[in-house]
Structure of MORN repeat variant:
Amino acid sequence: MKKLCFLIICSCFALLAAGQTTGNQTDAKNRKQGPWVEQVPSIRGEPGYTWEGIYKNDRKEGVWKKYTTDGDVMAEETFKNGVLDGLCKYFYPNGKISAIGNMLSVDIDGQKDTIVVIDPVSGQENLTEVTRKGYSVKHGEWKVYDEDGTMMRETYDKGELSNSVMGNRPRSQAAPLPHEAAEAAKKKKGKN
């Protein structure tokens, strides 16, 4: 009986130790690997937040969640090779969704290219290595919601807005958004 109790206690400690995931780890090459939590402090009036997700070879991979300092979800973004690529969701402070759509990776962060640079004085050609910065663009249908639940659909083709529909009407026939109404009033006032 004592051996059984001892085995059960040892098993519990082993399970507890295995269940505690060690986050924020780097490999032998000092690259971020595995589960990671990043604290971003408030700066220049912008509130701080917490990022949570997985790193693979120093690049964000899969779904990353962004939380307010109070623990409320602000965003869920999908990364591939450290760049936004896939489904993204953004939330209002009350938890309601504010936007949902897909991002498309246009360039991979850290990708290296070799280009020929010609010296303008001597005309000599030199090979130079250039490191790209990764970036993403909206692609496909995006649904954008007001806090009261009114939805606007926007369709993007590799970052270019190709169609916008508010409710069931094209965006051009829909009532102006608040910032558009203020802009129109300024223009009208300037003509008088």
